[in-house]
Amino acid sequence: MNQNGVPSESSAEDAVQPPVTRDDLKKFWIGLGAAIEWIAMRGQPMSVKLYLAREDEAGEALVAKLADLPSEIAESLVRGAIEDKDSPLVAIPAGIWRQTATSDANDIGQPYRLVGTDDDNELEGAIYSVPVTGDRDAQAPGYRRVQIRTDFILDNWPEYTTDIEPSSPIRRVVAQAEVRRMIEKIVAMTPEDLAPLTQREIFELVGRCISDAPRDMVRQFYREIMPNSKPGPRGGRNPDRKLRIQELGEKLIAAQLPN
Fold this sequence. Notes:
About 35% of the residues lie in helices and about 15% in strands. It is an alpha+beta fold.
């Protein structure tokens, strides 16, 4: 990219060369900026004019898709470091997407602004906090070093089409053995004071790692692996249980990372 965030272009062909190819999506996570470049270009060179138009459309389409997802799914797909803090990568709250502008054209006083580049890595990305009232202390922080799961990007913006608007992806066939292994891993990694997990918690944790896992399949293996458990909460619950379940989900995702 040049200093304005536009990929280098070939003067001979007046074409923008793609900074992101299909090989870059072999990783479990990809930078948010790289994801937008993939959606816009699909690894193909194009004219500067067409690229600039498609890049804006790509950012809008990505944010709109994330805003329409159930919260637990959206939060399993995108992570970043809290703005202005030296923090690890954490799940980005799902509610942020309906409050995020992607360009001047759709920036109507939204409290967040998506930027396709990050100061430390031009192919990651950022969601900057924009003080609407001028009081920065009253504004929730944004996120830097934003990354997104590549399987989500390829499911919605596959390489065999250049459509910006995501089509309804063909549901991936999930192997029963994959779901069973995941539930067994969840049970093994659950701290003793959190056990046994409820059926709802199992649904949430499996969904964070295998978003296409059918609920009836999860329910079947839940009953086989945890035969004495009940579907919902039983009695009083630790008030920080939900937070600890989310932390367990992050550990499960981290355990899957190949890089």
